[in-house]
Specification:
single chain, 156 residues, mainly alpha, Four Helix Bundle (Hemerythrin (Met), subunit A)
Length: 156
């Protein structure tokens, strides 16, 4: 088994376009990924932790604790960045990891948006709830089509 250093793990960082993701990746993802590597936590296990974060986020959304739910939303993005950095930095990318990552996004985003829409619907903001559901449905369809197109391109 190859021993990886912090510098190896940092090589797993992607050049992010958006300032928020640069902030998350450069300040937090590499150190946490290195700690996970030292603790023998795999990238797929971190992805599963991200999926499990959807449960308290959904509960907090339903209860109307939106700021607390947003904390879990950001923790999900942190897990998403960490699992990618860890997999690329330790050369443990896998097909299972790719599909787990997609599954994590579908589960977390669906639960987060739908429970938020349900909560605002219960508070009487029916138009906002409908708008959220319609926008989210459109986004999910676009992501699915984009993923299929990438798989077709990669197969050629």
């Amino acid at each position: 088994m190859k021993i990886y250093t912090y510098e190896n793990i940092k090589k797993g960082l992607l050049e992010e376009t958006y300032l928020y993701f640069k902030f998350i990746s450069y300040l937090f993802a590499a150190p946490i990924a290195y700690a996970a590597y030292k603790l023998r936590i795999s990238a797929n296990q971190i992805t599963i932790i991200g999926i499990l974060l959807s449960i308290p986020a959904a509960f907090l959304n339903i209860k109307g604790y939106y700021i607390s739910a947003l904390v879990f939303f950001h923790l999900f993005f942190l897990c998403d960045a960490v699992d990618g950095v860890l997999a690329r930095g330790t050369n443990t990318k896998s097909l299972l990891g790719k599909y787990l990552d997609d599954l994590a996004h579908y589960i977390f985003h669906t639960l987060f948006i739908m429970t938020f829409a349900f909560s605002v619907f219960q508070k009487g903001y029916k138009i906002l709830a409908l708008f959220l559901i319609l926008c989210f449905k459109n986004i999910q369809s676009t992501l699915r089509i984009f993923r299929i197109n990438l798989e077709v391109i990669n197969a050629i």
